[in-house]
Amino acid sequence: MAGKCQSEAGVPREMEEEQAEFHTLVPEFLKCFLGDHVYPEQMDCQSRERECQLVQDLVSRIMARVHECNVELFTGEAILVGSQAQDLHVRTESSSSDYDFLAPIQYNTNLILMGSLYSKLYTPKGLLPVWDSLKPGVPVYRWGNKVVVDYNKLIMRDLFERKTVDVDLTEEDIKTINDRQLQIWKNSVDPYSVMTELWECVQEALAEEKRNPAPEIRNIRLENTVGITPISPAVQLSAEVDGRAVSIDLVPTIRNKVDMSMDWPQQDLKWLSDWWDREQGTEQRKPTWNIMEIYKTGTDLVAKNSYWRLTFSLAETQLLKDIDADGGCRQKALRVLKQINMEKWVLRYGKVLTSYHLKMVLFWASDLNPETENWATVLDSLGTLLKVLEFSLEKRNLPSYFLPSMNFFDWHRSEEENSLKNLVLEVLRLEVRLMRCSPERYLQLSYDLAKPQGPGPFIQRARELDEFRRKHQKDFEKFKHLKEEKQPGQGAASLFFAQHRHLGSCLQLNVLR
């Protein structure tokens, strides 16, 4: 059965009695672990709520000044998303409280999602045109989680709509195409430029904030002090709020322009059937969440790495609102995994598995195992999550819940980095397999609370994990250094982006010819 060691049969009676006595202590141990390691800050709800309100007030003041700085671009809104909005935040002793905000911009052109791309077009761009004559809207495509525009097709469509007869392109047509392309480029919403403008406006807003500081907030500053590059994920701030360190990410956002993907929800989950061990003919129950409410929430676009990308952060918040309405312990179990990942796995192997990946595991596990008995206790919930996580690591496949064709474990890096990454995924699988065998013993071992004793599958798997760690320790260290050094040269990236942007019309014209 899911979440249990398969080799417990045939255990001597005295060992069975010892294990039975041990397992009666599990709920109490997990309760203590949750209180001591996972969410001690949750215990003081009043302080957490006060910190969250102070941060939201600070960001509201900043965004109001950003709006004054550029009325035509920024709405002045700030929408809290992520773990703080979803009550899933955990932190280590040395880490800060992380706050993520969407910063909506003004964008009035309609977007029409035409379909998905599975290979890169020769001429797709991440810039979104602002053009009143583009009726009924701009045709866009989904490429992974990016939204791209095929400018050649866009201009050709516009050109032939003006022609009465479909004929070969004339010299006048070529000149028209060139002029139109130049105009569209000049009037496009460029994610990199928008991010840069937000950074500059936030810098001005902070100067005003420092002249009139709130008494509870100190040492507020921009983290990306030298400016924004095409690979910057957000405008990042740090501050002390009520004496505690916080980090704040602001991401430019285009709201309510793209419908929820037709890829979601998947009605036929046979392709994921290895994620559960149902008997033949057993009916698959559907999740309890309200799909129409999630559809109404929709999806937005965020500026990231020189593209506008789909984000489902508000849909995720809506989905999580009632995920434990049956009295289950899904969110408590997820916090345990997030804490283990932050405090143990990331430090040991590098940041391969993220908090967002674990949230996807929760969504899939809830979808595939909706029965209340799978989530009745923290131990049950951990077993259900670990089953899905172990399978994902084994198959090197963790699909996005909202875009199942996207695999978060499918990297397109150098052969060396991919090889090292696969070693990390394998050692994480061994960690998860060991934890799934006995979550309470795994936590005791990981936090030096007790040494495992006696024979059995847990000891055997612990030895296999330890042997794999020792064998590949140098590989893990090498991978961590590769990750740290892999950032592209800012000068080269900026130069490429400038060429990509300003010479685009010439390149596309050559293609047409």
TrEMBL record:
GO molecular function: metal ion binding; nucleotide binding; nucleotidyltransferase activity
GO CC term, one of those recorded: nucleus
Keyword Transmembrane among record annotations: no
Domain of life: Eukaryota
Domain Mab-21-like HhH/H2TH-like residues, every copy: 329-420
Keywords on record: Developmental protein, Magnesium, Metal-binding, Nucleotide-binding, Nucleotidyltransferase, Nucleus, Transferase
InterPro entries attached to this UniProt entry: Mab-21-like_nuc_Trfase, Mab-21_HhH/H2TH-like, MAB21L/cGLR
Chief location bin: nucleus
Stretches assigned to the Mab-21-like nucleotidyltransferase domain: 167-321
Pfam family of the protein (one): Mab-21_C
Compartmental location: Nucleus
Family membership: Belongs to the mab-21 family.
Oligomeric form and interacting partners: Monomer. Homodecamer; composed of 2 back to back homopentamers. The protein may exist as monomer in solution and oiligomerizes upon ligand binding.
Protein name, as recorded: Putative nucleotidyltransferase MAB21L1
Organism, scientific name: Chelydra serpentina
